[in-house]
Amino acid sequence: MNCGRVRLSQPESDSRRFTPARWLAFFGCLVALYELITWGRWLAAGPVQITQYRDTAQAAWTVAKFYELAILLVSIGLAIKLVRDCRRAGRLTFDAQLLLGGVAALFWDPFGNFVQPAFFYNSDWLNLNTWTGSAPGVINPDASRMPEPVFIMLVYPFGLLAFAMITNAIMRAIQRARPSWSSVRILVLGAVAAAVCGMGLEAPMFLLHLWALPGAPRTLALFGNGQRYPAVEYLTTGMVFAGWAAVRYFKDDAGLTFTERGVGRFGRLFAIVGWCSSLLIVLQLIVTFFAFHAAPYPASYPRDLVNGLCNVGSTQHTRYGPCPGSPGFRMPVSS
Q1: pTM attached to this predicted model
Q2: 164, 238, 273, 285: which has the fewest Cβ within 10 Å?
Q3: Residue 17's pLDDT is what?
């Protein structure tokens, strides 16, 4: 078996039935419509940078600038490569499609706060306020108050593609060393490699309070309570990284991924949008479920991490009121 190739027969009836790619393309169209409505409202309202509690004297500020420079260089390098690849192929390559899928997936990144504030980003990042509050059906009345880092806006399209490339290189090395291994075994080891990559990215962020997920349970969390890196985060992030790597790696004898089979050019693009978005939607549904059972948020959280999203520690008298898990917490509802 060729590296990353999966033998699949294409039934003649594929042209007349809904294949997985067609279901994903249909879902991708719905996702794109919802995203366009939300982003349109957000732009019309005028995005602003969240800087009220920014603290440029702490180490987190310096580390954030390092990460911002690193992702900028990665993004420029990948953008040049993708443009060259597309020009050479005379079409939108799969990696270019995956990058656009990453843009669509970025939309769902702040939706852990759709119902209540469960996730925090530090305002030391170069940022804009999130678009969640502009989404139809939003419950959290202060959902757009969280800063969305420009770093994250580049991580989804460029960073996740880079991590998929790294993971695929590991998967190819494993398959060369163990050619008799099944695709399932390669996928499992690839998922482990992807999860390790995700933890390598996120662990410093939790330790330095560059972001936090206080709405997740403490069970199996890494580090101390004030910097806890919850299992909900590293397991679901591993799922997302593995999903990117898997769809890029496994192809049939025609060189097509499962998001490309049985659909046309535009269908392929919407199918990858549907696939990438579905991974993030599942992640946020898990986060939202556990947030309903949140333990008290760490009182040691600095103000530039909480950014007035709710009352905890030194952050008090917010518009939202007490953070979830606090005594007497009652969820405000958007009017």
Answers
A1: 0.90
A2: 285
A3: 67
